[in-house]
Amino acid sequence: MAKKKLVLIGNGMAGIRAIEEILQLLPDQFDITVFGKEPYPNYNRIQLSKVLQGDTEIKDITLNEWQWYEDNGILLYPGETVTKIDKENQVVYTDKGKETAYDYLIIATGSNPFMLPLPGADKEGVTAFRDIEDCEKMIDASNHYKRAAVIGGGLLGLEAARGLLNLGMEVDVIHISDYLMERQLDRAAAELLQKELESQGMNFYLEKQTSEITGKKRVTGLKFKDGGAIPADLVVMAVGIKPNVALAQESGVDVNRGIIVNDHMETNVPNIYAVGECAEHREMVYGLVAPLYEQGQALAKHICGMNHQGYKGSVLSTQLKVSGVDVFSTGLINETADSKSIKVFDEWQNTYKKILVQDDKLTGAVLFGDTKEGTKLLSLIKKGANVQEYLESQQASDDGESIVAAMSDEEIICGCNGVSKGTIVNAIKNDGLTTVEQVKGKTNASRSCGTCKNLVSDLLTDTLGDEYEADTKESICACTDLTRDEVVAEIREKGLTHSKEVMNVLEWKTEEGCSKCKPALNYYLGMVYPEEHEDERESRFVNERLHANIQKDGTYSVVPRMYGGVTNAEDLRTIADVAEKYEVGMIKLTGGQRIDLLGVKKEDLPDVWKDLGMPSGYAYGKSVRTVKTCVGAEFCRFGTQDSTGMGIQLEKKFEGLNTPHKVKMGVSACPRNCAEGGIKDVGVVGLDGVWEVYVGGNGGTDLRKAELLVKVKTQQEVLEYTAAFLQYYRENASYLERTSHYVERVGIEHVQEIVNDDQLRSELNARMDQALSVYQEPWSNVLESETTLKDLYQKVTAK
Ligand SMILES: Cc1cc2nc3c(=O)[nH]c(=O)nc-3n(C[C@H](O)[C@H](O)[C@H](O)COP(=O)(O)OP(=O)(O)OC[C@H]3O[C@@H](n4cnc5c(N)ncnc54)[C@H](O)[C@@H]3O)c2cc1C
Ligand SMILES: NC(=O)c1ccc[n+]([C@@H]2O[C@H](COP(=O)([O-])OP(=O)(O)OC[C@H]3O[C@@H](n4cnc5c(N)ncnc54)[C@H](O)[C@@H]3O)[C@@H](O)[C@H]2O)c1
Ligand code: SF4
Ligand code: FES
Q1: Which of 106, 252, 391, 414 is the least buried, fewest Cβ under 10 Å from its Cβ?
Q2: Long-range contact pairs involving 330-337 (C-beta distance under 8 Å, separation at least 24)
Q3: In this predicted structure, which of 279-283, 474-478, 761-765 has the lowest mean pLDDT?
Q4: Ligand 2: which atom is nearest the Cα of residue 177?
Q5: Contact present, 149 and 235 (Cβ < 8 Å)
Q6: Ligand 2, atom 25: nearest CA belongs to which residue?
Q7: Interhelix angle for 155-166 vs 132-144, to 10°?
Q8: What's the whole-number mean pLDDT along residues 71-87?
Q9: Quick one: three-class SS letters along 35-97?
Q10: H helical segments located in 495-604
Q11: 174 lines ligand 2 (CB under 6 A)
């Protein structure tokens, strides 16, 4: 029997998944032809966010290599657009003059990004974020320009903004609603998200509507309807998508918002089907892959003549792909008159969970900070579980049962691909799978957004027990397979002196590196060669580049050094004068006993520093921040030692020292510990004739009590042991690893062994002195450099 001719228009994620399903059901029944407008094989569009964020490369996001088409006898026409469908004669025509007949036609033309029809939207530097070309355009712009504006604070806009930050740009996000991701989150979660993203350096303009894109040939900025304006060298529009229906409509296929299909993905025209973002099913158009894959399954079964109930619609779930941010939502997100909610807001852990219940059934969930329960909740909501079932499953995990162990076989592990626990466990057992990659190959789990990888790994552990050895070697980022220790060893061994050289010699997978490895390499090089290494300013995070902390409204905060938290009338008068002169928004005492001037304009920073005439407090740096002190023996009736004097000495000695992460210290003069040394990176407590030195404490998100390192008699010894500890931490911790995590990881006994060894302690002190000898006060440095003033602060002369 002659094979049926099957033609697919659109070589994207939904169309090709439908073909894969068909090939699985009936491998040899069709002559398949695929037309794809883009000149690539089918790739993972989802991962473009990861490409922009520097976590992966374009070459690594291909889903089906050229060879796959060949192996399956598929005729692929890449870079060729279908321009007409003749539904009577069942033929399609392309822009390259090709005519192809079909028995079955699948339209999977996806969506087009919605571009706001603003004056100036056609200028150079305005782009969408939809395909490889857009991604390349943004990466290229980041090499030449500084300021990006992203219009739209939805999933796409925020993922783009994170990518542009990683590429070293300053990023403003302009959002129409009064809170972010209002289609996916409730206000509480959105506000937590905003705070987190602001701390990563993103700047938000909420409730703003853009009225114009300014500039001559290239964009130079945005104007808002309320009269405001901001500068921008790159504008990314991420304000939603429009199903790509023009071809279908012109060819006489019924369309509404999308191409109208029934439960078998049939259009009104015989033998023409639609699947993916271009299709409209029961008045719903979807923009996430999970429903599109479910549609593909239904379509394949129908075309292959299998009995199937068809596609019934999907429960959606979303997860933002921004590193360091965990947000998840599924089903309904906002309360209604008939719903009740279970809400847990843990201010301490900065987590938020809301579960909506209607008539005892779970109907939706929003999670922030801890999204481990997301997959389970999606699964329960999909199957219409009642609240009791959820509470019981939660009890099981509270009792220590792992999340995957407590799941039933039908529950979904991979939301994107609809792969259940049972399917994965069977594949592991029957096919002898031992790695996440193998599970992906066999079941599709983790093949799309990748957020379920940890659950798949947990399932491998759970199923294989001791036989499963997770790959524990962790590379410093996706640009290399080398670990932190391997990179540092290579820097030392090969005498590498610049990040570019490291990337080149150690065969980095990306040319420019990413936001993870660039600052890390700069730190490691400075640590290994304190005297020779020239700081690579462009590799540093924005706050460190500008020597001030960027705030929510785009202004900066200025914190002058106040050694040991001690000040005097003259300094206070100067601070007050500066605050008045530059109309500082708020003067605030910090937790580290200093004064923070908030709301300083970027262009005023150099003048503020000049007028203050004080050293930088380094409140923005991965560096020694403050040394908090108690009043001590001089004034306090409990005081046994000069804690302020000790604190000042410590702060003066270690001022400006580059460290893997910020370092905070506290010195008290009796066990009442008013300077809170128990939760500091270094805490010193004075007792009668003795100083106790504690290390590895943390009072922030990961609360940790500091551990006793040593008891010594003199202030000189405090300085010596602290220097040894800090230098050892500098030389051995990973970049961005706080002392609390480091000490926890290596154990206090190990650190004690090192610093108590006289020889090692003396060597560590010598290397610390070398590192400290190159310190230059950054604010006065900036004031001396015309170029820096102009490049970074847009000041022509400030002297
Ligand atoms: C940056 C980014 C991140 C995303 N992240 C996620 C995520 O984390 N999770 C998630 O679920 N979803 C995510 N999405 C959405 C997801 O990628 C889409 O839902 C999915 O790709 C849609 O698949 P599709 O096949 O319907 O459309 P597409 O993937 O757009 O494929 C359609 C293809 O058809 C081609 N085409 C159109 N017209 C013609 C024609 N006339 N002739 C020939 N070819 C034609 C198009 O060029 C395109 O290549 C993301 C999207 C983007 C852009
Ligand atoms: N992690 C993920 O799941 C993920 C990531 C990226 C993209 N996507 C998908 O890609 C598609 C596109 O994403 P999107 O974020 O563009 O769509 P979206 O519709 O989810 O969000 C668009 C956002 O832009 C805002 N907006 C609309 N008009 C505006 C204006 N004039 N000015 C400022 N803001 C405006 C809206 O309020 C909305 O929050 C969606 O289907 C999305 O689901 C998903
Ligand atoms: S720690 Fe002790 S000495 Fe210092 S201020 Fe508190 S009570 Fe006084
Ligand atoms: S949940 Fe997205 S790939 Fe599994």
Answers
A1: 391
A2: 330/364, 330/365, 330/374, 330/377, 330/378, 330/381, 331/356, 331/362, 331/363, 331/364, 331/365, 331/378, 331/381, 332/356, 332/363, 332/364, 333/184, 333/185, 333/186, 333/364, 333/366, 334/186
A3: 474-478
A4: 37
A5: yes
A6: 152
A7: 40
A8: 96
A9: EECCCCCCECHHHHHHHHCCCCCHHHCECCCHHHHHHCCCEEEECCCEEEEECCCCEEEECCC
A10: 499-505, 517-528, 542-546, 569-581
A11: yes
Q: If you search the block for the tokens 């937790």, which residue do you land on? A: 591
Asked whether the beta carbons of 202 and 163 are under 8 A apart, the reply is no
Sequence-distant (6+) residues with CB within 8 A of 736 are 520, 622, 660, 661
244 in ligand 1 pocket by Cβ < 6 Å?
yes
Q: Is 185 in the pocket of ligand 2 (CB under 6 A)?
A: no
What is the Cα–Cα distance from 261 to 243, expressed in whole angstroms?
Answer: 13
Confidence of residue 396 (pLDDT cuts 50, 70, 90): low
Name the residue type at position 275: V
Which residues are CB-contacts of 177 (< 8 A; sequence separation ≥ 6)? Answer: 153, 206, 207
Tokens standing for 180? 């972010």
93 or 793, higher pLDDT? 93
From start to end of 147-252, where are the E strands?
A: 147-151, 170-174, 203-205, 210-215, 219-224, 229-231, 234-237, 241-243
Q: At what angle do helices 758-773 and 748-756 cross, to 10 degrees?
A: 90
CB atoms within 10 A of CB 799: 9
**Alpha carbon nearest to ligand 1 atom 35, residue:** 10
Q: How far is the CA of 156 from the centre of ligand 2 (A)?
A: 5
The residue whose C-alpha atom lies closest to atom 2 belonging to ligand 1 is 46
Cα(766)–Cα(763) distance, rounded to whole angstroms? Answer: 5
Contact 45, 52 (CB under 8 A): no
For 618-671, how does the pLDDT look when each residue is reduced to its tens digit (9 = 90+)? 888 899 999 999 999 999 999 999 999 999 999 999 999 999 999 999 999 999
The 8 Å CB, 24+ separation contacts for 432-441 are: 433/460, 434/460, 434/464, 434/467, 434/468, 435/460, 435/471, 436/460
Give the dihedral of Cα atoms 377, 382, 386, 392; nearest 10 deg.
Answer: -40
Q: In which residue are the tokens 């969970």 written?
A: 353
> How many Å lie between the centroid of ligand 2 and the Cα of residue 109?
19
Grade residue 508 by pLDDT with cuts at 50, 70 and 90. confident
CB-ligand 1 contact for 52 (6 Å cutoff)? no
Among 203, 123, 122, CA closest to 158 = 203
Q: Give dist(CA 603, CA 587) in Å, integer.
A: 19
**d(C-alpha 174, C-alpha 755), whole Å:** 51
The answer on pLDDT for 797 being more than 60 is: no
Q: Quick count: other Cβ atoms within 10 Å of Cβ 784?
A: 10
Per mean pLDDT, which of 403-407, 584-588, 616-620 is the most reliable?
584-588
138: pLDDT confidence band, cut at 50, 70 and 90? very high
By most ligand atoms within 8 Å of CB, the mutation choice from 40, 45, 288 for ligand 1 is 45
779 Cβ neighbours under 8 A, 6+ residues apart? 547, 609, 615, 616
Q: From the CB of 177, is ligand 2 less than 6 Å away?
A: yes
Can you tell me the distance from the alpha carbon of 224 to that of 307, in angstroms, rounded to the nearest whole number?
55
Q: Whose CA is nearest to atom 20 of ligand 2?
A: 154
- Residue 273: which of 3, 2, 11, 7 has the closest Cα? 7
Q: Which candidate, 46, 142, 43, 126, places its Cα nearest to that of 513?
A: 142
Cα(744)–Cα(8) distance, rounded to whole angstroms? 56
Please, which pLDDT band fits residue 412 given cuts at 50, 70 and 90?
A: confident
Tokens of 555: 């202004």
Give residue 619's identity as a one-letter amino acid code. Answer: A
Q: Classify each residue of 577-601 as buried b or exposed e, where b means 16 or more C-beta atoms within 10 Å of its C-beta.
A: ebbeebebeeeeebebbbbbbbbbe
Pocket, ligand 3, Cβ cutoff 6 A:
630-632, 636, 638-639, 643, 668-670, 672-674
